[in-house]
Amino acid sequence: MTSNGTPIPVTADGIPRPGGAGPLAGRTVSRIGYGAMQLERLHADRAAAVALVRRAAQLGVDHFDTAQFYGNGFVNEVLGEALAGVDDALVVSKVGADPDPGGPRPLRTAQRPEELRASVEDNLRSLGTDRIDVVNLRRLDIGPGLRAEGDQVVDLDDQLAVLTALRDEGKVGAIGLSAVTTDVLRRALPAGVVCVQNSYSLVSRDNEDMLRLCATEGIAWVPFFPLGGAFPGMPKVADEPAVHAVAQSAGCTPAQVGLAWLLHHAPNVLLIPGTADAGHLADNLAAGAVDLGGADLAALDAVPSRSADAVRLG
């Protein structure tokens, strides 16, 4: 039981759900999932990467976020191997960028409809599946990171048309959005959007209005860079004195405070913190048990928000 006497949500296997339970694409998932991007750091030790994903599943994680451009397919292959036979695992991938291992950056924009279809097919092959539970269209309308330019600026309706067709074909279970504006989200609502991934954290809350719109529409809000600081110039949650003060009083780390604040902030928040370390994985999942009182939340809510949208990959 929780501190207020309500039952602790558990998975189908009876494992307590990290952070509790939340809806995604018509299913129930743990509110703290796993973002697989950092598995690329284990490229030289595939067995360790597979073991880490399996450990996450053992600890109650059933929401896994990935992309073909993470390690040029390596991360997808690891997830496909590690989650084989795990019936309740929900895998979310994204399209809108493709691997570019020989280029100046490890990825390039791929926004045109034919590129989106090809990227879904690439994801299916590397994941070793015939259906991806959720595919997020990474529009690149806002930062931080890559932006669509030139012939990569594509009309939203054309992009949604190909993703809807892939859903009708059974290759995609549901459609999400990433790196979008509120106007784009409103235009996309008739397509049946199940989640939105935008940069968002305690110290960078530019997308507050979109989070609230998602809550109203029953759409999961899945923030990337939930602790900030992914690029030079981005504000970091761990740099805030108020975060350290709450961490000291709560007996946890500043990172756990940042994740716990997100869970408390809105009921439609689902987290996908990533790591390549088993100890750090356990710490991230333990953030779901951090109890923030009213005074703690008031102090954290008062932390100024600083924009991260101007940050670009140079």
Question: Could you characterize what this model shows?
Answer:
The protein is an alpha/beta fold. It has a single domain, classed as NADP-dependent oxidoreductase domain (TIM Barrel), CATH 3.20.20. The protein has 10 helices and 11 strands. The protein has helices at residues 46-58, 74-82, 113-127, 156-168, 182-188, 208-217, 241-250, 254-265, 278-286, 294-301; strands at residues 21-24, 27-30, 34-35, 63-65, 90-95, 97-99, 107-109, 132-138, 172-178, 193-197, 220-221. It has a 7-stranded parallel beta sheet with strand order 3-4-5-8-9-10-11, with helices on one face. Strands 1-2 form a two-stranded antiparallel ribbon. Strand 8, helix 4 (156-168) and strand 9 (172-178) form a beta-alpha-beta unit.
Q: In terms of per-residue confidence, which ranges show pLDDT below 50 for 5 or more consecutive residues?
A: 310-314
Number of strands: 11
Question: Any idea what the radius of gyration is?
Answer: 19 Å
Helix content: 25-40%
- Lateral strand order in the biggest sheet: 3-4-5-8-9-10-11
Domains (count):
1
The averaged pLDDT comes out at: 93
**Large-scale geometry:** globular
Strand content: 5-15%
Class derived from helix and strand content: alpha/beta
Described by strand count, sense and barrel closure, the largest sheet is: 7 strands, parallel
Number of helices: 10
N-to-C terminal Cα separation, in Å? 49 Å
CATH topology call: TIM Barrel
CATH C-level: Alpha Beta
**CATH homologous superfamily - what is it?**
NADP-dependent oxidoreductase domain
CATH architecture: Alpha-Beta Barrel
Order of helices and strands: EEEHEHEEEHEHEHEHEHHHH
